[in-house]
Amino acid sequence: MSWQAAYESAFSDSLSVPLPYGEKGRFQPELDVVYSYNVGLEEGQVLQVEIAQENTAQRLFIDILQSDGNTYRSLAKSQPGATKLEAAAVFSGIFKVIVQAEAGATGNFFISLNKKPMYAFPVAGKGNAAIQSFWGAVRDGGKRSHEGVDIFAKKGTPVIAVSDGTITRAGEYGIGGKQVWLRTSIFGKSIYYAHLDKIAVESGNSVKTGDTVGFVGNTGNAKGGAHHLHFGIYSAMGAVNPLPFIFRTQEIGQQDYARRFDTTALRIREARATLRLGPATSFEKIGEAAPGQTVTLLGQHNAWLHVRTISGVRAFVHASLVKV
Q1: How far is the C-alpha of 138 from the C-alpha of 80, rounded, in Å?
Q2: Does the structural domain 258-324 have CATH classification 2.30.30.40?
Q3: What are the tens digits of pLDDT across the range 293-309?
Q4: How far apart are CA 40 and CA 79, in angstroms?
Q5: Which SS3 state, helix, strand or coil, does residue 156 take?
Q6: 1-121+249-257: which CATH topology?
Q7: Pairing status of strand 21-27 against strand 60-67
Q8: SS3 content of the chain, % helix, strand, coil (to 5)
């Protein structure tokens, strides 16, 4: 298979992995392998791809694409030789990551796929644990649902701009009490901060990420209740769930993944081995490998092995089902 044909074959590879995901492996010129993964992302999340390799002189090529159900649209493409790439999810869906080394590449590698939020966290010094009321929660006895998240903190805690932008409205209005609206760009999102104790900006102000726009309070219909920030995000289509835009997940690194095999030729043990679409029993079964059948090891995700069968099928199999 030619180098270009190997790349094109990656579009038919439907292996799925959870985020964060890490894989250890070894580039071998005789395998001519392209590594391809499907991952799910929500609007407001940013996909980060990074490859650490033993042979730093050889070039890598990374693509991130998004599926529209029938084809893939390119979102980001690395410069030849770059080892990092990221792309933001402007709407929720399935994304494909393709990693290919230059022809003849050799040496060990580690691929890491992580996700991060698009925006900074809205309340200074706080994080995920401070979010205690979520999108869709029932309000007013079921008459409406919560169009945002509530972030609890002490009165007077600074509330910050989650992105660069312009203040389009600042003042005290209705159930939101003292509030600030931040527009991220001409065609961007409108960020809504409500129940503030004090406002630190004026309409028309330009702000940078991290600038203070107000302070946590309980004004409006939160009066008398616990101090918190109601944080919302609006697009041209209406309110969107703000949680993926600010929720942080732990990143993974090479130290989190053990290497179990140092050879690429493995054999199925006495029992039949289930081949799966992803590295867990929760992923769809896509076939079986017979006892004694040889599989080629492409990479290792702890106790799960990324393999290719003699018929060319790529899948994940549990390490307990194979032997050297």
Answers
A1: 50
A2: yes
A3: 999 999 999 899 999 99
A4: 24
A5: coil
A6: Jelly Rolls (2.60.120)
A7: unpaired
A8: 10, 50, 40
176-182 LR contacts (CB < 8 Å, sep 24+): 176/220, 176/221, 176/230, 177/217, 177/218, 177/219, 177/220, 177/221, 177/222, 177/223, 178/214, 178/217, 178/219, 178/220, 179/220, 180/213, 180/214, 182/207, 182/213
Identify residue 104 by its one-letter amino acid code: G
**Alpha-carbon span 159 to 196, nearest angstrom:** 9
Domain ranges of the chain: 1-121+249-257, 128-246, 258-324
| pTM across the whole model | 0.90
**Total residues found in the chain within this entry:** 324
Residue 244: strand, helix, or coil: helix
Q: How many CA atoms lie within 13 A of 285 on its CB side?
A: 7
Write the CA distances from 283 to 41, 42, 69, 280, 312, integer angstroms: 17, 19, 20, 6, 20
Terminal Cα distance for the chain, rounded = 26
Give residue 216's identity as a one-letter amino acid code: V
Structure tokens at 248: 């942080």
The span from the CA of 57 to the CA of 179, in Å, is: 53
Q: What number does CATH give the domain 128-246? A: 2.70.70.10
Q: Give how far Cα 170 sits from Cα of 154, 259, 292, Å.
A: 21, 55, 70
Give per-residue pLDDT as tens, 39-65.
999 999 999 999 999 988 999 999 999
The two three-digit tokens of residue 309, written as one number: 């069968």
The strand pairing partners of 74, in sequence order, are 65
